[in-house]
Design a protein that fits this description.
The mean pLDDT is about 95. The strands form 3 sheets. Strands 2, 4, 5, 6, 9, 12 and 13 form a 7-stranded mixed sheet that branches. This protein has a 4-stranded antiparallel sheet with strand order 1-3-8-7, with no helix packed on it. It is mostly beta strands. The N and C termini lie far apart (about 40 Å).
């Protein structure tokens, strides 16, 4: 059974940092890309960051570029996402998801396109207080 379980959400003050974790099981973790998405109240879900586990190539959305870091732990089949400089606009339910990466030019790439992701976790709430 495929499982993706998020953890690390909570209440954080503006300017603070948070480290989210996604624990994966039931599929070939090293052959997949793991993406983080978020959905704020009343808004559509959006991509935040992803990483292709095949060669650990990351990709970040503009909204978190330069203040976030995504990494994989192959031995534990987990992906972590750290976001610094949190602000109230970062308040959302954060989901991790798994997809096959894109192979191009000798490297593997992930994409923050929801329809490419086959497996999803249930999400973890992140609330940033002002």
């Amino acid at each position: 059974e495929v499982q993706l379980v998020e953890s690390g959400g909570g209440l954080v003050q503006t300017g603070g940092s948070l480290r989210l974790s996604c624990a994966a099981s039931g599929f070939a973790f090293d052959e997949y890309a793991i993406g983080w998405f978020r959905q704020a109240p009343g808004k559509e879900r959006e991509g935040v960051a992803c990483i292709s586990n095949a060669d650990e190539t990351p990709y970040y959305a503009n909204s978190v570029q330069d203040r976030s870091f995504i990494s994989s732990n192959m031995g534990k089949a987990t992906v972590s996402l750290r976001i610094d400089g949190l602000n109230p606009e970062d308040t959302a339910v954060y989901y991790c998801a798994a997809s096959r990466p894109t192979y191009y030019g000798g490297s593997y790439y992930c994409r923050l396109m929801e329809d490419r992701y086959n497996y999803w976790g249930r999400g973890t709430q992140v609330t940033v207080s002002s």
